[in-house]
Amino acid sequence: MSILQVRDLTKSFGGVQAVRGVSFEVGAGELLALIGPNGAGKTTCFNMLNGQIRPDRGSVTLEGRDLTGLSPRRIWRMGVGRTFQITATYASMTVRENVQMVLLSRHRRLFDLWRPAASEYVDEALDLLEQVGMRPQADRPCGVLAYGDVKRVELAMALASEPRLLLMDEPTAGMAPKERIELMALTAELVRRRGVAVLFTEHDMDVVFAHAHRIIVLSRGALIASGPPPVVRDDPDVQEVYLGSGAMFAKEGAA
Amino acid sequence: MTVSRRMVLGSSVAAVLAVGLAGQALAADPVRIGEINSYTGLPAFTIPYRNGWELAVEEINAKGGVLGGRKIVVVSRDDNGKPDDAVRIANELVTAEKVHLLAGTFFSHIGLAVSDFAKQNKTLFIAAEPLTDAITWEKGNRYTFRLRPSNYMQAAMLVEEAAKLPAKRWATVAPNYEYGQSAVAVFKELLKAKRPDVEFVTEQWPAQGKIDAGSTAQALAAGNPDAIFNVTFGPDLSKFVREGTLRGLFEGKPVVSLLTGEPEYLDPLKGEAPEGWIVTGYPWDQIDTAEHKAFLAAYQKKFNDYPRLGSIVGYVTMKTAAAALERAGSTDAEKLVDAMQGLKVDTPLGAITYRGSDHQATLGAYVGKIAVKGGRGVMTDWRYADGAAYLPPDEVVAKRRPQ
Amino acid sequence: MGFLVAQFLSGLAHASSLFLVAAGLSIIFGVTRIVNFAHGSFYMLGAFVAYSLADRLSGALGFWGAVAGAAVFAGLLGVAVEVLLLRRLYRSPELFQLLATFGLVLVVQDLALAIWGPEDLLGPRAPGLEGIVRILGRPFPQYDLLLIALGPAVLGLLWLLFHRTRWGILVRAATEDREMTGALGVKQTRLFTSVLFLGTALAGLAGALQVPREAANLQMDINIVVEAFVVVVIGGMGSVAGAFLASLLIGQLQAFGILIFPQVTLVLVFLVMALVLVVRPYGLLGRPQAVPRAGHAPETPIAPASQGARIAWAAALAVLLALPLAVGDYALVVLTEVFVLALFASSLHFAMGPGGMVSFGHAAYFGLGAYGAGLLMKHLGAGMVPGLIAAPLAAGLGALVFGWFCVRLSGVYLAMLTLAFAQIVWSVAFQWYSVTGGDNGILGVWPAAWAAPKWAFYYLSLVLAGGGIYLLRRVIFSPFGYALRAGRDSPLRSDAIGIPVKRHQWAAFTLSGAAAGLAGGLYAYSKGSVFPNLISISTSVDALVMVLLGGVQTLTGPIVGAAVFHGLETEMVRHTDYWRLLLGVAIIAMVLVFPQGVVGALERLRPRRPGQAREEAVAR
What we know:
The complex is a heterotrimer. By secondary structure, chain A is of the alpha/beta class. Chain A is 36% helix and 25% strand. Chain A has a 6-stranded mixed sheet, sandwiched between helices. Chain C folds into 2 domains: 2-279, no CATH class; 319-535, no CATH class. In chain C, 73% of the residues lie in helices and 2% in strands. The A-C interface holds A 50, 72-73, 76-77, 82, 84, 88-94, 97, 100-102, 104-106, 109-118, 120, 136-137, 139-141, 143-144, 157, 161 and C 298-302, 304, 474-475, 477-483, 485-486, 489-490, 492-493, 495-500, 504, 507, 611, 614-615, 618-619.
């Protein structure tokens, strides 16, 4: 049973079609990679799913509920979590408070003016940090963490909202190769246990081919291939597209 | 500036020393007067004023002080140009410095704030310079008396001259706040009463300190008035005079102008003082009454400078305090207030009385025309307008004061 | 027709002078991100120096030499200020330099008074341009024609400078992205110093060119700086062309505004600024500001008071409670004011710190509170208790309305919109005589009989101000406060986890306004009167100085800042005429010694918290 269904998604900017009639689905526990050369429309596609851009046409449904054109906040409330390419955590809060912030929002406590926030949902927050291996650093300010650790905190924050679908924009960007593998392995394990659907974009093809269950490929706004990694790897259209940029099978990816 | 600061310190020290010496002989505490003014906000006006009261205090103490040998000590403070600061200082002066009465202030709103404080704390307050009519009328109270001729009085003096002019079409220009608004209102009301045939064709209300003088002058000219009533002062005035003169605004048009003859406003204009303007002011160098000559000589000797109108006001303020103390025979606030009612004080401009009905002193002003002599503005064809003649009668003001 | 043309030309002349000042301010802000409060001081010094030089030199050469000399003098002074003062503050929290420039304003005011004396100084007219020309039959000053030509000429020269020289290109690059310029290997310090020279020299030039039009006087600095900020903001911060357009707009607005609404010229420019900002949030030609510059350390996480701190607070409270037994009435009066100002500063800090919304017009809410109480007394004869209830409500309502517009903006634009609203409220209070009493204010706003003794009002203020500060603090630690900080730290992330950032900011702005209103109400009853100056820019600036002085990144900063600032001011006023000089020097010294604010510096000295110790361990 698929969690996310995308039908005929289309968006143009001033006459340029950024995304053209894209359709795909993501199932529970599935990691779907969205790849394509620069300017293929990945980001536009992503931002239509998370609500930052309104599609011209097409629909996005999450477990049967229509998300099309809703605001990011509404979409999040309906069960779509996300991580950012450039990390966005709260530098003036501790690691634990970052996760607590999400929990407070999930429990609709944002307009509570009285109880001390830091003592709310402590166990739940620590449990999530435990899962991403950040519990020992729970009391450190987020602003001083190493980059890889911030990514882990982001993952914990994303999971704190108990999402049905997780959108991850370049989850391993800027990390060392070893860290990348670790983070994606962790992600894969967590989503498998929770039955979350994951859609991620990624430049590093090693990461993509090692962790994605399926891959969809965008080129000039259109979906040109989709399927399990070996199928996509051997697709002539995909090779054509990537030969142009020379990036697909380069050893270190195209980051 | 430096000089006057030193003077203050010097005179306070001198006063303290004098008290110390006198104390042994007379065992009498000095009378303490709390004084508040905008020394940093308006130094051009308040420093001559301070010189004036320093001279008065020196004279009073040299003659043996008041109340049978008690010296006067003035505790002076800067109000920072803010009424709320002035109230805090008034608090300090009354509660910490234990002054027997309060005096001073220049700005109308600060004078009002202190007058309300005086009412609340039942302390005598001699408002030296604020011009607003409210301080003696609508907002008047038992504890507040005002020395300087009010807005109403000065406007009335000018109306007397304005009514003699043939002009029928008048324009007004005044800073856009209570002082300007009430000056224009009084001027219009009184002139209309004397000359029902006049009409007011244009009004300009530049923001205080921010006049766009060229545009304002042109806008006034566009109304094609026969004469102009001006209330702007300070930097606005010099800008207005320059731009207006340049544009020929004043050619063939009489201008009647409030306060412009006071040295504080006239002197900065130097040779560009607007000739022929009819003004209220203070021709310090031409008054040859004995009492003024004596004052002038003493002032010039002590400060090596000529007096401004503020010097007169400061001087008379302390003379008033001394006279009130003597008449009351006590430093008790209620007795002092009673003594102030109808108190007569001799001043360099002649004798004045503090009216019992509205607590306004009858100090007058000089009305005359501006001329340029020797590269600076002077007053000519002037006369002393006694304040008593320009105040409404007792029964009229009684209705305007809160009961 | 001739009249309208003359009026139009007058507007152009005014626009040109305004442009020179505003262009300098805009260039300085664009590159260094310094909100240079002292820009008006350079303008004023330009006028005074030109006056003195023209007085000594004679003839046409003397006059124009004096103008040029004044501009160079102002520029060199700007360089000195950059090298000695501002350079040390680039890594301080945002806006901290504003505090230093505020200190500078105070110092310059007193120095100018000491050097040039209190009287207005009317300088000579420009030789050769004393007369008039007739334009469509109307007389028009020759000198104004020169000014009209000068504006576009300076604009053209600046354009050449910025587009045709390597230095100019670097300046433009730095305006776009400071960090990148640093990465290009450009000597940032030298660039900043030269920009300060250009900007302040333009201010000095503008001041010098005013000599033939107005007497050099001690109010010039304050009068011009606010107007210059308005122009810069309308044009778009950092945009010289924008400043030019905005100057034209303001110049014409004043020239024709006085014909149509002679009474409302005071408020007209601020109405226009508010309107422009509502429609174009970054000014006419401005671009969205880059993310606030990095460089200063991120705020450390807030933590509830430790055991030691709680004991210290309890002890302080005990001392304050016992104090009326020991000290005289005057000390109680001053302390009462400190309580009120601490609440006021805390309310501003609440918006600035956790809320990330800097307000340059917080006096609006302080004043609305005071007027809320005062007007209720004046028109309905209400007593103190209803007055003190009305105060936060009136201010909260004002903040609710103004906040709706303000939270749509960010950074300096938000700050300037708050200033515009404050000026609008101020002019209403100042000019609506029949309701507010105009500048004669509202008298007789005294406490109820039971609260009239100084010690009684002291306790009342302690309870209400202390309670208000406690509530604000409680909110900062609540989920609402956390969500507010979250919205400030990362609006993108906050949006993605369901935080309605703008709504939180709006609510926080309203709450902050209400707290300021309570402070204003208390202040009114402590003074017995309410005057428009409570809403003036200087009241807003005082609050800002208190917050920055204490340390914007700390929670107790505003309380300490209020106590230090108010204590210094009241004491210095008592002892010297030159209190502004001393206060200015004290502020500059504190800025240099405590670049994170007083409390910020103390926190650095304090033994590390357990969390920090652990952090060290982990880092190792």
